[in-house]
Amino acid sequence: MPLGTLDRSPPPFFRQGPSALTKLIFFSALAVFLMVADARFTLVRPLRAALATALLPAERALAVPVDLWRGGADYLRGLGSAREAESAARATLARQAEKVTRAETLERENARLRALLELRPAVSVRSQAAEVMYEASDPYSRKVFIDRGRTQGVALGSPVINEAGVLGQVTRLYPLTAEVTLLTDKDAAIPVLNTRTQARSAAFGGAVGAAQAGASMELRFIAGHADVQVGDQLTTSGVDGIYPPDLPVARVVAVDRRTDAGFARILLAPLAQPDGVRHVLVLEPLAAQLPPRPEPVPDKPALPAAKGGRK
Fold first, then answer.
1. Which residue segment(s) compose the domain that 81 sits in?
2. Are 134 and 261 in the same domain?
3. Checking DSSP bridges between strand 248-256 and strand 263-270, what pairing results, if any?
4. Mean pLDDT of 59-73
5. 15 located within any domain
6. What is the pLDDT of residues 101-156, one digit of tens each?
7. Mean pLDDT score, 244-249
8. d(CA 160, CA 162)
9. pTM assigned to the model
C-alpha cells in the first residue's frame, strides 16, 4: 500500500479539542455571567425553580431512609422515656396512696377523739373556683379582680388561696366580679401561727427596704428576744373568724434583732407567689359557720353613795 494513502489523523479517543486554558477561561466567564445575570436580572431563577421541581421526587425518595432512621431512633427514645415516666408515676402513686391511707386513719382517729372529748366537729369550709382576670390599675397596690362576685355567692372578706397557700382576701364585691387584696399589699394583714413555736402574731404586707429576694411581708411588733428563726413556717391561726386554720402563709427569710429598738425586724416570703397566678379558690369566711359571738353585757350602774353617816 502506498504511504500517501495512509490516514494520519489521530483516533477519536486521542482528540483533545480546545486546550485546558481555553476551557478554564470559557467556563469562568460563563460562571461570572450567570452569577451577574442571576443577581441583577434573575434570569436563572426560572431554571432553578424548574430543576428544584424536577429533582423534588428524587430528594424525597433519598430522604426516606434518613427519615426512617431518625423516626426509629426518636421512637425508641420516646419509648424509653415513657417507660421511665410510667415507673416514676407508679412510685409517686404508691407514695400518695400511702399518704391518703394515713390521712384517712388520722381523720377517723380525730373524729373518735373529738367524740370522746365531746368537742364540736371541725368546720367544713365551702369553696368555689375562680379565675384571675386582670390586676388593679393602681400601681401602688397589689390587687386583682376575679370572675366571681355577689351573684355567685362570694362574700365580703372571703379568703382566696391557690395550691401553694393564701393569696389574699376579697375586699370589694360587684355583681359579677370581686376585688382581691393580696397579702403583699401595703394595707394587708393576716393573723399567723408559727408552726414551730405555736406563737401567734400578725403578718403585714408591703415590707419596705427588703433586700432579700421575695421578702414582701414582715412580722411587726415582735420582741427582739422572741423565738423566731429563719426558715420558720407560718400558717393561719384560725382565730380571726375569716381564714380557716393551718393554711400556709409565708416563710421567715430574715431576722434583724436591733439593739437600739425594742422590736425585731422579721421579713417574710409568701408561699403563694401572686405573680402569674391564673386560677384560684375562693373560700367561705369561717365566721359564716361559727356560732355568733355573744354580745357584751353592759355594766350595771354603780349605786349612789349614801349621803351622810351615822350620827
1. 23-117
2. yes
3. antiparallel
4. 84
5. no
6. 888 888 888 877 777 776 556 556 788 999 999 888 887 889 999 999 999 999 99
7. 91
8. 7
9. 0.58
